[in-house]
């Protein structure tokens, strides 16, 4: 069977967010702004087997809504999602398309799927949106969840819902979030009842340039013309560039253990940085580090997937940072496994 592919790119918006953040309310507000002559489409995903959200959206002419039930289309539903999306684009030929993953979804995986080359002729990916409940920002138990943080890290636009119900503690946490995610988020939008303009979120997706390579001291041992080995396991070093900032990071096996006080001294000795975040398996237990220019915070944390650390600097400062010296100092803090 021959499939006639669309010859135009459809603007696609992914609207992510944790459970109850206000994604559907935002979507309702955006859909109300559809020009009369256009067709807009929505691909929704609910974790359960009974769809509810679809019934909350406009059912009149000019809207096409497709719902995928069961599981998360970001990870376990790749093939059904791609089939549903392809059919939606080819059969309905929408002028704009919104994708709302479940609140338990991982948008980074969905974004990775939709930026594969075979979608490039059909999709014009717009900046990924994350909705956060502003009235819950003060709740550390809520904001500390890994999925919540993963969704924020992937986002390029953050819509803060329930802005009218935020306390001073919420406002303080929002200020800290803006600093923490400065490298990825292009825009922070305060919203009440989802009332924002489509123009505020219609920004192009900006792919992050990321280079994952072996540890620097390993690279120096290679012959000048020897290619870098393919990274298949820890440890490794990586560098990202986004929005005028550079992020340098290292990941080590969780089985490695580090001397806490030596590690703390090493991180405190660094200069000209905007943010340092890390989690390490140390002789004092698993410790998390969260440094900004005003505060140096560290505390006991939960066991991590690996040892990791990231340092954020402005691009113009990245050239003067001695990443090799930092790596050498980090490795010197490791407790010998012998």
From TrEMBL:
Name of one Pfam family that matches: cobW
Classification via InterPro entries: CobW/HypB/UreG_nucleotide-bd, P-loop_NTPase, Zinc-reg_GTPase_activator
Gene3D superfamilies: P-loop containing nucleotide triphosphate hydrolases
Highest taxon of the lineage: Bacteria
Stretches assigned to the CobW/HypB/UreG nucleotide-binding domain: 11-176
PANTHER family tied to this protein: COBW-RELATED, ZINC CHAPERONE YEIR
Protein name as annotated: CobW family GTP-binding protein
């Amino acid at each position: 069977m021959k499939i006639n592919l669309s010859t135009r790119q459809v603007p696609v918006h992914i609207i992510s967010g944790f459970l109850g953040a206000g994604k559907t309310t935002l979507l309702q507000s955006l859909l109300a702004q559809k020009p009369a002559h256009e067709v807009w489409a929505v691909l929704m995903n609910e974790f359960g087997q009974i769809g509810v959200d679809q019934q909350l959206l406009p059912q009149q002419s000019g809207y096409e809504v497709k719902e995928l039930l069961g599981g998360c289309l970001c990870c376990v539903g790749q093939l059904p999602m791609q089939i549903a999306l392809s059919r939606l684009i080819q059969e309905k030929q929408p002028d704009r398309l919104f994708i709302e993953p479940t609140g338990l979804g991982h948008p980074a995986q969905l974004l990775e799927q939709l930026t594969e080359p075979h979608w490039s002729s059909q999709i014009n990916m717009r900046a990924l949106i994350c909705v956060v409940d502003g009235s819950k920002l003060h709740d550390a138990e809520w904001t500390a969840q890994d999925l919540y943080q993963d969704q924020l890290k992937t986002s390029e636009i953050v819509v803060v819902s329930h802005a009218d119900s935020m306390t001073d503690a919420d406002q303080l946490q929002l200020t800290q979030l803006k600093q923490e995610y400065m490298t990825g988020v292009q825009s922070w939008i305060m919203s009440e009842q989802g009332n924002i303009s489509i123009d505020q979120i219609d920004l192009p997706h900006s792919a992050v340039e990321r280079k994952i390579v072996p540890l620097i001291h390993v690279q120096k041992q290679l012959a000048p013309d020897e290619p870098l080995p393919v990274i298949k396991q820890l440890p490794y070093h990586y560098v990202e560039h986004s929005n005028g900032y550079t992020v340098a990071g290292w990941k080590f096996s969780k089985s490695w253990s580090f001397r806490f006080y030596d590690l703390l001294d090493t991180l405190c000795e660094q200069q000209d940085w905007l943010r340092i975040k890390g989690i390490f398996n140390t002789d004092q237990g698993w410790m998390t580090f969260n440094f900004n220019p005003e505060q140096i915070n560290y505390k006991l944390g939960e066991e991590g997937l690996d040892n990791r650390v990231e340092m954020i600097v402005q691009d113009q400062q990245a050239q003067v940072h001695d990443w090799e010296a930092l790596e050498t100092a980090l490795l010197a803090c490791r407790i010998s496994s012998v």
